[in-house]
TrEMBL record:
It holds the Pfam family MATH_2. This is MATH domain-containing protein. SUPFAM superfamilies: TRAF domain-like. PANTHER family: ANKYRIN REPEAT-CONTAINING PROTEIN-RELATED, TRAF-LIKE FAMILY PROTEIN. Coiled coil: none annotated. Residues 1-85, 107-233 form the MATH domain. PROSITE patterns: MATH.
């Protein structure tokens, strides 16, 4: 999308698309085609609140295959890409609400390694990460090594946050996610985990556990003063207020 102003206020643009990469070596030109495996359920939505409006594929083609002259994609330092795009627009009206379920039933896994764990006295945040191809929603893990709330001083507290929701989703949006947060036991393999199935929405953009694991038990899981956390996320539904297709 051509920037934030490319979308009118109150509008949502939904896009189905294919990308093409030309094989220029063969006499009869052929294309490498990449598209969503399930277009009915995997459409990309752009909102005015999202700056930039980007969608695509993290792994279109490997560098090795792309640069191999035998494949014909890169000839004389030149390549040719194409795109087939279908666009539909929606507008938010009144207080209506649409709930889309089962947007992505694939469980996405993210691993976060915290080094020099014993030196942390303040909360630590993972780098933001995206669950599979659900690019409208980015997440982060927040670890309180000395505990928070009822876990302060005795436990580790761990929470899963939606990262900067005000920049990703229209006001009033909700995300239904099933998740598992796990602390890896690097010594004995007896990992500790919690599971949840929650709606993430304002003001509750984070869920987790104040008393995830005692500090003594966690110390027995560490190796070379590093703590490894793992989270699995499955996005089950998305609720966007005031959408009617035009």
């Amino acid at each position: 999308m051509g920037g934030q102003k490319a979308i009118e206020t109150g509008s949502i643009v939904t896009v189905d698309y294919k990308f093409f990469l030309l094989n220029r070596q063969k006499e009869k030109k052929t294309y490498l085609v990449l598209e969503d495996a399930n277009k009915k359920e995997k459409k990309y939505c752009f909102y005015r609140t999202i700056v930039g409006g980007l969608a695509g594929f993290d792994r279109f083609i490997s560098i090795e295959d792309f640069t191999d002259a035998l494949n014909g994609y890169l000839i004389d330092d030149t390549c040719e890409f194409g795109a087939d795009v279908f666009v539909s627009k929606s507008r938010r009206k009144g207080k209506g609400e649409r709930v889309s379920m089962n947007l992505n039933t694939i469980m996405y896994k993210h691993t976060w390694k915290v080094t020099d764990f014993s030196k942390f006295d303040t909360p630590s945040c993972s780098q933001p990460f995206t669950a599979a191809d659900q690019k409208y929603c980015t997440w982060k893990l927040v670890l309180y090594p000395r505990g928070l709330g009822i876990g302060k001083g005795s436990h580790l507290s761990v929470f899963l946050h939606v990262y900067e929701p005000e920049n990703q989703l229209p006001i009033g949006s909700k995300i239904l996610a099933e998740y598992t947060i796990r602390i890896m036991d690097q010594i004995h393999g007896k990992h500790r985990s919690i599971k949840g199935k929650k709606w993430f929405s304002a003001p509750f953009w984070s869920w987790g556990h104040y008393q995830f694991i005692t500090q003594e038990a966690n110390a027995a899981c560490l190796k070379k003063d590093s703590c490894i956390l793992e989270v699995e996320i499955c996005i089950l539904g998305l609720s966007i207020p005031g959408i009617s297709t035009t």
